[in-house]
Amino acid sequence: MSYKPFAYDASKSDVNTFTIQLAAALAGTNIKVNSAHAGWVRTDMGGPHASLAPSEGVTTIVRLALLGPNGPTGKFFHGEDELPW
């Protein structure tokens, strides 16, 4: 039995929880806290057959980094789409 998938899934769940809690703690400030899903990116981890170039995978992250004061917080995004937890 491999514990690697369990550990990976648990770490993702922890990131989701931390995103929501940190966003709540910073409510009322100009700081926005969101999680980003870059997609399947051609990296050492994603491998050579991944569908996105690194320059494409970074677009969600850059968009979230440039959010204005009225932008969303405590959410999970891929591209322009908000994803369910």
Provide structural commentary.
The chain is mostly helical. Helices cover 39% and strands 8% of the residues. The chain contains 3 helices and 3 strands; from the N terminus they run αβααββ. It has helices spanning 4-25, 54-57, 59-65; strands at residues 35-36, 76-78, 81-82. It has a 3-stranded mixed sheet with strand order 1-2-3. A hairpin with a 2-residue loop joins strand 2 (76-78) and strand 3. It is flat. The chain starts with a helix and ends with a strand. The relative contact order is 0.18.
End-to-end C-alpha gap = 27 Å
Biggest sheet: strands side by side, in what order?
1-2-3
Q: Which sheet architecture does the biggest sheet show? A: 3 strands, mixed
Low-confidence stretches: none
Radius of gyration: 15 Å
Classification by helices and strands: mainly alpha
Proportion of residues in helical segments: 25-40%
What is the string of SSEs from the N terminus onward? HEHHEE
Q: If you average the pLDDT, what whole number results?
A: 93
Q: How many DSSP E strands?
A: 3
Range of strand content: 5-15%
Give the overall shape: flat
- With helices defined by DSSP (H or I, 4 residues minimum), what is the helix count? 3
What is the strand and helix layout of this fold?
Blueprint: H1 4-25, E1 35-36, H2 54-57, H3 59-65, E2 76-78, E3 81-82
Parallel strand pairs: 1-2
Antiparallel strand pairs: 2-3
For the structure shown, list the relevant keywords.
85 residues, mainly alpha, three-stranded mixed sheet, 3 strands, flat
